[in-house]
Amino acid sequence: MLLLGAAVVAVIGGFPVVAGTDSYILLLLGKFLCYAIFALSIDLIWGFTGILSLGQAVYFGIGAYFVALSLKINYALDHPTRYGNKFPDFMEWNGLKALPHFMEPLVSTPFAVACALIVPTALAFIFGVITFKRHIYGVYCAVITLAESLILQEFIIEYQAYTGGFNGITDYSNYLGIPFLWFMLAVTIAFFLIARVLTHSRIGTVLKSIRDNDLRAQFMGYNVANYRIFVFCVSAFMSAAAGAMYAAWVGIISYLDTGPVFSVEGVIWTAVGGRATLIGPFLGAFLVKGLEFLLSGVLAAFWQLLVGLLFIFVVLVMPDGIVGSIAHWLRRHRKGTLTQLREEQDLLAHDREHDWQPAGVPRSGEESV
Amino acid sequence: MTMRRRKFLKSSAATLGAWTLGGTAPYYFMRNIAKAAEGDTIKVGILHSLSGTIAIIETSLHNAELLAIEEINAKGGVLGKKIQPIVEDPQSVVQVFAEKAKKLLLEDKVAAVLGCYTSASRQSVLPIFEQYNGVLLYPTLYEAQECSKNCFYTGAVPNQQLDDFVPWIINTLKRKKFYMVGSNYIYPKETNREVKALLEKHGGQNVGEEYAPLGHTEFSTIINNISGSGAEVVFSDLVGDSIVAFYKQFKQFGFTADDLPICTPITTEQEIAAMGPENAEGHYTSFNYFQSVDSPENKSFVERYKAKYGKDAVTNAVMEAAYFQTYFLAHAIEKVKSTEADALIYEGLPGQEFQAPQGKVKIDEQNHHTWLWARIGKANPQGQFDVVWKSENWIRPQPWVPYLYPDKTCNFTDQRVKERLSKPWSVEKNRSGTINL
Amino acid sequence: MALLEVKGLTTRVSGYTILDNLDFSVEENELRVLLGPNGAGKTTLIAMITGQFRPTAGKIHFAGQDITGWSPDAIFLAGISRKFQVPNMYETLSVYDNVMVSLQSDRKVFKYMFKGVTAAEDERIWEILDFVELAGKASDPADTLAHGERQWLEMGMLIASNPKLLLLDEPTTGMTPDGKQRTAALIQKIARNHTVLLVEHDMHLVRQIARKVTVLHQGQVLAEGALDEVVSNKTVREVYLGKGKRH
Amino acid sequence: MTQALISQILIGVSVTAILVISAIGLAVIFGVAGVINMAHGQFIMVGAYTAAVIGKMGGNTFVAIPVSFVVVALLGLAVERGVIRWIYDRPLETLLATWGVGIILEVVMKLIFGPELYYVGAPKVLAGSVHLVGRLPYPYYRLFLIVVAILMVAATFYLIFRTDFGLKVRAVRRNRAMSGCLGIDTAKIDMMIFMFGSGLAGIAGAVLAPIKSVSTTMGFRYAVDSYMTIVLGGVGNLWGVPTGGGLIGEGETLLAYKFNSVIGELLVFIFIVIAIRVFPRGIFGYQERR
After folding, report:
1. From the CA of B35, how many Å to the nearest CA of chain D?
2. Is A302 within 8 Å of chain B by CB?
3. Share above pLDDT 70 across residues of chain D, in percent, rounded to a whole number
4. How crowded is residue C29: how many other Cβ atoms within 10 Å of its Cβ?
5. Shortest CA distance from A246: residue in chain B
6. A319 and D93: CB-CB below 8 Å?
7. Could you give the CA distance from residue C77 to residue B377 in angstroms, rounded to a whole number?
8. How far, rounded to the nearest angstrom, does the alpha carbon of residue A66 sit from its chain's CA centroid?
9. Chain A: residue nearest C76 by CA?
10. Looking at per-residue confidence, does D7 or D91 come out higher?
C-alpha cells in the first residue's frame, strides 16, 4: 500500500520534470490534486460521519476567492489594467475609483492566505453550531447547505464590484509550475495523513459510531453535536485549503466554484472512489475528472449521459465505491463467505419509542440517516 | 551494511523507474492520439460549450462554424489542405474553457481557435492566448473596452449597435423616457452606461434601471415598476431565458408594442421563435444582421444552414459572425501562406474583407475589431424582423467609445504598441493595444 | 435517599396524557422490574429518565442531582445507561469497537483526538466480551451478529460504561425461549453489582429474576412490591394479568 | 404608491401560485414516500416539453395538462421501478441517484429537441388581462394559474384524506412495517405515490411553460425553488406547501419592489436559512420535543 502511494506521488511529482512545465496535463494534475482534497474533505463528513453537505463548495470558494483577490490586487499593482489603473479591472468596470479600504489588507498575500483558511473554518464553526446543536442533519442539512451555497453565489454575482461577479476573477499571476506542484503534493499528503490519523484513532471510531447510530452514541454519553461540529470544521478547513491552492494554481475563479453543482460533483467523486475510505476520494476525483477531460471532447453529447448513468450505477450497484468493493471482495476471499443468518427475523425492527408520536416525519428517513 | 546499501540502491532505482515511466507514459499516450489524427490538414480549434447552461446559444455558433469549414473544404480547402476542426466542449465552465484552450494550443497546435460566447469565457482564455501567442476569433457582440493582440473580435461593439439606435428611438419613435432592464452582469451594465451617456447627449431621459439575476424568469415586479415609471420605451439587455419570459409576461400584463415598445441590442430571431412571434411583434432590435436581410449572400447562407440543420433552424447575428469569421481565418491563412500566429496577427487578419450575409465586412487594421453594418429591425408576425433602418455605410468599430473614454484608443499599428509587443511575453505581459491619447 | 427519584412526572402529547403525575423511585443495588400493559407508559418513562424527551411537568432526581431537562449525553455521564427495545448499536463497527466506544472515559472531543486504547482498557474490553460470550466474534462487524447476540452485545456495551443505573427495555424481545433463559441469567449476573431497572413482558422471565416489581397503568403506579404480593393484587390481575387467571 | 403596492401584493399571489404548482409534486414525493427527488426540476422540464409537442400538434394548455400528467407519471413509474425502489431505505442516496436521473433526462431531451429554447404558447382564451384593483391589469393566465394551484392542492388533499388510497398512504407513512403486516402492499403504495407526485410535476411544466421559458436546462431553478418552498413550509404536512410558497412568493415580490430582484432573492434565501434553523422541521412540520 505504502509502495503504491509512493509510486503515485512519484508519478505526479515527476511528471513536470519529464514533460516540461508547458503541458496542459500539468495544469490538470494540479487541479485534480485540489479536487482530490476537496473530495477527501467531503469524505470526512459524509463517509466517516454521515453528514451530507451540499454546500462544501462554499468553503472551497471562499478560500479560493481570498487568494484570487489578493493575487489580482497584486497583479494590478505591477501591471496596470487596460484602463491604466493600478487596481483590479472588474472594480473599474463597476465604477469604483480605487481599491476599497476594506480590501487593502489583502495586498499582503500571507494575510489573504490566513483569511482563506480561517474565515471558512470559522464560518463552518458557526454554521455547525447552529445546525448540529439544533439537531439538524440528514436531508435537512443537505438542503440547508444547498441554500447556503446558492446564497453565496447570488452574493458574488450581485456584489460584482468586489468579486468580479458572473465573470469571476481571472488574469492574474498564478503559481503554475514545478515548485508549487510539489507544494500541493506535500499538502495533499499532509491532509491524507491527518485524515488517516483522525479516522483511525479513537475519535474516528466515535465518528463512525455516530454515523451508524447517533441515538445510541448520544445515550452512550457522547455529545454528538460537538463531534459533528469538530469534523465539519476540519472538513471546511481542508476544502478552504484546496480552494486556496486551486485559485493560485489555475488562475481563474468563478461563482461556479462555490455552487451546489460543484459540491455534488465532489460527493460523486467520493462515492465512485469509495466513501469511508481514504484512497477513495483521490481515486474518484482523478478518475472521473480525468475521464471527463479525455472524453468530453470526443463524446461531447454523451459525456453527460455517462455521468448520469455513473451516478445511478454507483448508488445501485456499487454503494461502497471502487475501493470499498475491492476491499469487500478481498475480505470475502480471505474469510470465506459469511453465511451467518440471523436467528430470529425481527419484525419489530423499528424503534418503538417513537410509536406513540403523532404524525411525524416519514419513517424511512430522518432517524436512520 | 552492504545489504542495506544495496537495498537502498535498488529501491531508489525502482522509484526513479516508476517516476519516469509513470510520468511519461500517459503524456506520450495522449500525444500519440493527437498525432495519429494529424495528416495533411490545417487544424482549427472550435471552443463552444455543447453542454451546460450556455450551450443553448453556443451550439448554434459551433454549427455555423462547422458549416463554413465544410464549405471551405468543399471548395478545396486552404493552401491545398483541408481544414480539420478540433472540437472541444468547455461545458459552460470558465476554468474548462481555459484548460481546453491550453490543450488546443499546446497539444493540438491549432492554427487558430474559433470560440467563446460570454465575456467571462473570453476573459478566461485570453491570458492563455497571450502567453502562448495563439489566435482567437470571437464572434459575440460584447461590451468592448478591450483589445488584445491575440484576439480578433468579429461581433458588434456598442458603438455599432447603440450610437444610431438611441437617437433613432428619440427622434424617429419620438420616445424620450427610457426604462432599462438588464441581466445582472457586466455586459448589460456596461451597455446601459453607454446608453445613459447617449441619452444625455441626445436629450433622452433615464426613468429607471433594474437588473434581474441571470436566468430569472419572473418579471411581474419589474413590469409593475415599469408601469409606474412613466417610461415611453423599455430598453432591455436581458439575456437567455430571461428574454423569453420577459416578453411573454410583458404582453400578458397588457402592454403592447404600440404603447410601450421594447428596444434591445440582443434579442434575436432565435429567442423570438422560442417566445412565439405574437409576443415579440412590434418590438425593436438593433443588430448588424437579421435573417431577413435581403442579399444574395444571405439567401444562400440561410438556405445552406437550413439544409444542414433542419428547416426550422433560424439564423441570427452572432451565428452570422461565427460563420464569416471562419472565412476571415481561411482567407488570412491563404494570404500569408502560413499558420504562424504572428503572420496571421500582423498581416493575415487585419484588413481582411469578406462579402458576408449582412454585407461587406472588414477587420479593422488598427484595433482587431470588425467593420459592420447597423440595422434596426421591427419584429413581424412571422417571427422575423422588418428592417426599418439601415446604416448608409459600414461602421468602424470603436472599442473605446469617445463619449465615455475620450482619452483612449486601440491601435496595433501605433509604434508604442508595436514596441511593447515586440518584447517577449515573459518580459511584457501587457498584450493590449490600448494607448492613452 | 433513593438512587433514582421521579416526582409528579407528567407527559402530555397532543392532548393525550401518557404519564400522569407519576411518583417512582429505585434504591441502590436493586433489581426492579417494571410491568404494565401496552400503552401504560413504560417506555415513555424510560425516555423521560434518559432525557430523550422533556416532561410536561415533574422532576427527576438521580444520585442527588436534579437531572430534569438534561441532554441524553449529560444524563449518561451522570451514570444512567439505557438498553433500547430493539438492539441498537453501531452496525458497521466491529464488536470490539462497539465495546471500546462505550468504555467509560472522558468524552470531550479534543481529549479524544490522538488517543489510542490503553492496555488496561483493552483488558477490560476482553473481560466484557467474555462476560457476554462474544469474545470469539470480536472482529466481526456488529451487523453480522444474530439477533440474540446483538442484544447481548448491547448489554456488554452498557456494562462497559460502568453506569450507576442500567435501564433495560425489554431485552428479550424477539428471542427464542433458550435465548431468553440465557439472557435472564445474564441479567442476574449483571444485577450482582449494578442497579438495574428492567422493563419486561414475559412473566416467566419476571418470575425467574424479579425481587421487586412496579406495575404501571395509564401513566400511574398501580401497585408496587414483591412479585407475589403484586400478582395477587386484585386490580392488577384485572388490568394486566388477564381474565383467565381470575379463577 | 398604494395602487402599486396593491398590484405588487396581487403579483405575489400569482408568484405563490407558481411556487405551489411547482412544489406540490415534490411535497407529495418527499413528504409521503420520503424520497428526495433531485430530478424534480427535470420532471417539470419534461412536462413543459410535452406541452410544447402538444402545442406543435395543435393542442393547447388544456390538452397538455392531462397528457403531461400521464407522460411524466409514466416517467416517474419508470424511475421508481428502475432506480428508487432499491434505495427507499437510503434517503441520502436517493438524492445522488435522482441527481443522475436529472442529468440523463437533460441530455436525452437535448438529443431529441436540440439545445435551443422551445416555444410554448398560452391558449387564446387566456390571452389578455382584466383590470381588478391596483395599478396593473391582471393577466387571465395568472388567474388561471391561481385556480390551477388551488385545484392541485385540493386534489392532493382529497386524494390523501378522503380516499381509500389516501388512507393506505397515511398508514404506510405512519408505520411502514405495521401496514405491511396489515396486508397493505407498501411497495405498490410507494410506486403510486411516486407516480402521482411525478404527474403533478408534469402538470407544473405544462402550465408554467406559457409564461416562462422552456429549455433543457430550465429544471434546476424550479427544483431549487420547490425545495425552498417545502423545506420552509415543512414536510409531512401539505399545508406547508401553500404556507412556504406564500412566504417566499410574497416576500420575494415585496422585497423586489422595495429594493430590486437580486436583493429580493438574496434576502429571501437568507430568511429561509434562518427560518429552517429556528424551525428545523419547517413552519408546519413536526416539531421534535426535547
Report:
1. 31
2. no
3. 95
4. 12
5. B95
6. yes
7. 79
8. 17
9. A221
10. D7
Cell of A320: 461502497
A178 to chain C, any CB pair closer than 8 A? The answer is no
User: Do the domains at B41-156+294-371 and B163-264 have one common CATH topology?
Assistant: yes
The CA-atom distances, in angstroms, between A104 and each of A108, A157, B129 are 8, 21, 31
Verify whether the Cβ–Cβ distance D290 to C13 is below 8 Å: no
Across residues D72-101, what is the average pLDDT?
Answer: 89
Residue in the structure block whose three cell numbers are 415609471 = B229
A93 at B interface, C-beta within 8 A: yes
pLDDT of A151-193, one tens digit each? 888 888 888 888 888 888 888 878 888 889 999 999 999 999 9
Is A218 touching C (CB cutoff 8 A)?
Answer: yes
pTM (global) more than 0.80: yes
Considering only CB atoms, B120 lies closest to which of A82, A167, A301, namely A167
- Count of CB atoms within 10 A of residue B331's CB? 16
Which of C44, C73, C145 has the CB atom closest to A222's CB atom? Answer: C73
> Which residue intervals of B220-378 are DSSP H helices?
220-229, 241-252, 269-275, 277-280, 296-309, 317-336, 341-343
Which DSSP string corresponds to A336-369? -------SS--TT-S-GGGTTS-S-S-TTTTTT-
Contact B270, B241 (CB under 8 A): no
Answer whether CATH 3.40.50.2300 is correct for domain B163-264: yes
Minimum Cα–Cα distance from A227: chain C residue: C109
Report the gap between the CA of A67 and the closest CA in chain D (Å).
25
Cα(A27)–Cα(B120) distance, integer angstroms: 20
Nearest to B138 by CA among B392, B343, B399, B385: B399
A126 touches chain C (CB under 8 A): no
Asked if A14 reaches chain B (Cβ–Cβ under 8 Å), the answer is yes
Domain ranges for chain B: 41-156+294-371, 163-264
Chain-chain contact of A344 with C176 (C-beta, under 8 angstroms): yes
Cβ B103–A24 below 8 Å, yes or no?
yes
pLDDT of D54 reads 93
Q: B370 pLDDT band (50/70/90 cuts)?
A: very high
B272-326 per-position pLDDT tens digit: 988 989 999 999 999 999 999 999 999 999 999 999 998 888 899 999 999 999 9
Domain C4-79+163-245 has CATH 3.40.50.300: yes
Of B22, B100, B123, the CB nearest to A7: B22
**Average of per-residue pLDDT across B206-228:** 89
**Percent with pLDDT over 90 in chain A:** 30
Rounded Cα distance, A292 and A289, in Å: 5
Nearest to A46 by CA among A127, A147, A189, A145: A145
Interval B79-108: pLDDT, tens = 989 999 999 888 888 888 988 998 899 888
Chains A+D touching (3+ CB pairs under 8 Å) = yes
Of A345-354, B61-70, D208-217, highest mean pLDDT = B61-70
D15, D210, D262 member nearest B220 (Cβ): D15
Cβ within 8 Å of residue C54, ≥6 positions away? C48, C68, C69, D289, D290
Asked if B214 reaches chain D (Cβ–Cβ under 8 Å), the answer is: no
Chain B residue with minimum CA distance to D103: B52
Interface of A with B in 167-226 (CB under 8 A): 167-168, 170-171
Task: Enumerate residues 60 to 79 of chain B having a beta carbon within 8 A of any beta carbon in chain D.
Answer: 60
Cα C179 off chain centre by:
18
Tell me the nearest-neighbour CA distance from C53 into chain D, angstroms.
5
Name residues of chain A where pLDDT drops below 70: 1, 82-84, 297-301, 333-369
Q: Residue ranges of the domains in chain D?
A: 20-216
CATH number at B41-156+294-371: 3.40.50.2300
ipTM of the predicted assembly exceeds 0.90: no
Count helices and strands (H / E) in chain D.
11, 2
